[in-house]
């Protein structure tokens, strides 16, 4: 389903615990809800369609986007102020045409990617945060902490509980940043990346806890 720049949040009911996203507009609405403060802690979201955020990204020999003026920029799902803290199951669907261009010199603009910050839910029953079974292709991400699927994972070290995880995801994207990884840019505090791979281009200026996948 091709995104036309609109968002739909009519599917959301705060009392629910399972939500199905059936259009690109609903997927954009999901991003809007998270970025306005709905963490989805203890809730599960499934993606039921392939989503095309832009038709085609064009690149030069240095992997820079040459048609940025034709593209709809993407605001990552989850920020340092309003992280995503639920479970997202892509059900092996594809998100393509992601164009995310943030400040790559400082962390001020937050983590860059389809998702920005994934952070544990902070209670013993609903603490796990997961993004799984998702493919991100034909995309470009640039930011201080940058990854095709998620810019940053932040879990908890308290008794090994409350991990943030990206599982069984693949990326085929150009990813650039200070801490950049093909799938995840930066991992911290009991976070895990499992069963993931990337076949695109990664340009990173830092080691340490960069995602590296």
Automatic annotation (TrEMBL):
<protein>
    <recommendedName>
        <fullName>GLUG domain-containing protein</fullName>
    </recommendedName>
</protein>
<feature type="domain" description="GLUG">
    <location>
        <begin position="177"/>
        <end position="200"/>
    </location>
</feature>
<dbReference type="InterPro" id="IPR011493">
    <property type="entry name" value="GLUG"/>
</dbReference>
<dbReference type="Pfam" id="PF07581">
    <property type="entry name" value="Glug"/>
</dbReference>
